Amino acid sequence: MAKYVLKNKRVVISGASGGFGKELAVRLVKNYGCNVIGIGRNEEKLRALQDDLPGFTYRVFDVSNAKNWNDFACDLQRIGFTPDLLINNAGFLLPFAKTEYHSAKDAEEILYTNFLSCFYSFSALLPLLKKSADPAVVNVSSSAALAPVVGTALYSASKAAVRNFTECLAMDYKNQIYVAGVYPGFTKTNIFSRQNGGADNKILEKFCTPVDRAVGKILKKIKKRKIRIITGADAKAMNFFYRLFPSLTAKAIRAVLKKSDLEIFADIFHEKKSSSENNSAFL
């Protein structure tokens, strides 16, 4: 199979203000001469990146809103920007906790942001992607889509939806559009910013893969047109063992997180007030 040539591609990246999205934008512009449009909510960070990175521009909008993607597609058509590569990277992780402590609002927000944004972007940009000589779509899922992780029911569900959506797209558009799913393990990004004691936890930081290393491997796999891209020793172990020993692997993950005794996982293993005693959990 011919390699996917990244050089001089026109790229759209969601979640570009930090983490994977920012590093991808930097690499694609500097190493491959790509023209990148980044999407995010933090205009200050996006503007700073644009100032430091010629070849990068941005749009500020909420990716969980379908109308925003349709308006964006019209904007691209107006300026004559035909994307070759769409990278859906936007997403967030709720605090690790038992499912009963998350609200219906939490469920809607994470599903719209992590999963439905991938559908909205693909639907809106597909007519433009089809005009590319070599179109590609890369959806960033998670290792939590490869094996169940205790305390992440809503996040895992949203990322599993991304995984299945991506793999179906790959079959729907076989030989028409290159479609890939990315499944990173714990990575040094700001994804733990919502966690109790997670953002600056030194033990957790040592366990995480540096974002630049993860992105380097992702781009190498994209160039080889890999359909499934797994990064991080933890993600690879989860994928391997869950396929062989699903029940045992899920239990092992739970045992490891419990034994760590980290504050970030406290709401999973330490009993809180019941829902009837803590109505605020469901507001």
- CATH T-level topology: Rossmann fold
Percent helix = 40-55%
Name the CATH superfamily assignment: NAD(P)-binding Rossmann-like Domain
User: Spans of 5+ residues with little confidence (pLDDT < 50)?
Assistant: 274-283
What is the element string, with H for helices and E for strands? EHEHEHEHEHEHHEHHH
Quote the beta fraction. 5-15%
CA-CA gap between termini: 52 Å
CATH secondary-structure class: Alpha Beta
Order of strands, widest sheet: 3-2-1-4-5-6-7
- CATH architecture grouping: 3-Layer(aba) Sandwich
Spatial extent as radius of gyration: 19 Å
> Could you tell me the number of beta strands?
7
Largest sheet: 7 strands, parallel
What this model shows, in words?
The chain is of the alpha/beta class. It has one domain: NAD(P)-binding Rossmann-like Domain (Rossmann fold, 3-Layer(aba) Sandwich), CATH 3.40.50.720. Helices cover 47% and strands 13% of the residues. It contains ten helices and seven strands. Strand 2, helix 2 (43-52) and strand 3 (56-60) form a beta-alpha-beta unit. Helix 3 (66-79) runs parallel beside helix 4, helix 4 packs parallel to helix 5 and helix 8 crosses helix 9 (246-260). The protein is globular, with a radius of gyration of 19 Å. Residues 274-283 have low confidence and may be disordered.
Notable traits:
283 residues, alpha/beta, Rossmann fold, seven-stranded parallel β-sheet, disordered C terminus
How is this fold's topology laid out?
Blueprint: E1 10-14, H1 19-32, E2 35-40, H2 43-52, E3 56-60, H3 66-79, E4 85-88, H4 104-129, E5 136-140, H5 153-172, E6 178-184, H6 202-207, H7 211-223, E7 228-231, H8 233-244, H9 246-260, H10 266-269
Parallel strand pairs: 1-2, 1-4, 2-3, 4-5, 5-6, 6-7
Helix pairs in contact: 1-7, 3-4, 4-5, 8-9
